Amino acid sequence: MSSSHALLCLRCRSHLSSKTMAATLLYSTQVRHYATITNAAPKIQNGLLFFRGTHRTMQKWKQHMFCFSDFAKHLETETKEVKLAEKLSRTDVVVYESPILPIIDAVSVNERQVPLDLDATDELSALEEISDEEAISITLPAAMPPASTSLRDYIDKSETLSNLVQLGVNLWKLEQRPNVGSMLLRLNYKTDVAPRLLFLKDIGVEDSRLGFIITHNPYILTESLESLHARVNYLKSKNFNSETVASMVSRAPYLLNFSVKRLDNRLGFYQQQLQLSASNTRNIVARLPRLLCGSLEPVKENLKVCKIELGFKENEIQHIVIAVPKVLTANKRKLTQIFDLLHNTMKVPHHLITKFPQNYALIVFPLLGLQY
What we know:
Radius of gyration: 49 Å
Strand content: under 5%
Number of strands: 2
Order of helices and strands: HEEHHHHHHHHHHHHHHHHH
Pfam families: mTERF (PF02536)
Distance between the termini: 108 Å
Number of helices: 18
Structural class: mainly alpha
GO molecular function: nucleic acid binding
Low-confidence stretches: 5-55, 91-121
Largest sheet: 2 strands, antiparallel
Helix content: 55-70%
Mean pLDDT: 75
Strand order of the largest sheet: 1-2
Protein name: Transcription termination factor 3, mitochondrial
InterPro entries: MTERF (IPR003690)
């Protein structure tokens, strides 16, 4: 079939060549003819042929040239088609051009043929019967429960959770906090949890307090060790000894989550606001380390209450805070009730309350149902 296509294309080419030659001869004849009629020699400028003649003669000449240009375009199109036919006649592949689908490079049929042997694979089919021994030997890996509302369902599958339970961590408290359960499941015990537990033990935290710290502050397991060391070193640089630092971390689990800059700002605030010495500042912070963790707004509010509503002077407030640091974080309403009972009911004057705040606190706190 390819040879017949080639012969047909050759015939078309010979026919087209004859047309081309005839058109060329016609063109040359017309040029000579119009040159004779116009009795004007042609003029060549920039490779173009020009004639001089009457206006009517030039119009006829333009009409003939227009017809000849259309015929030349037609011959050019047929020449391209002949060349494409000759090119296709040299190969056995037929390319179909589609106006919608993209053109794909043609490859021979032999290259596309891939032998498919269904019996050549060694894998077992899903429909193939197996023996009872083979069925018993099949083991499936243990997987995490897909979804659960309790961390209890993951304890047997997670090394991190099982070890945290042994440390005394209350998972039922942690699972009530958003995103904490998923965070713990993503932690690796050997690379994430164990190094931070060893850090807490190295700074002096007792084993019995590890469960309490992680229960209240599980995010300490995601803090970098470099940041934790930097914060402990800062506290020691402010003359907090190792035992004090360990005690502060045990009683204020969020203490080491705050940056060095924030810790420094908090210490400076209490020292300047209460006009305390560095020793007294360390004293109240060591006794109530959550002063470095909580918000400063309640502290500022209580200082205003003591000065404006209760009528204490600044030096009296300073003496009371050094003796009973809880005054800074106490509930405003409870603080007012204590003063009302001591000063208005029991008729205790301001200077006696300032001189013995601890004694009066031991008396008043139980009466108001508070813990001192």
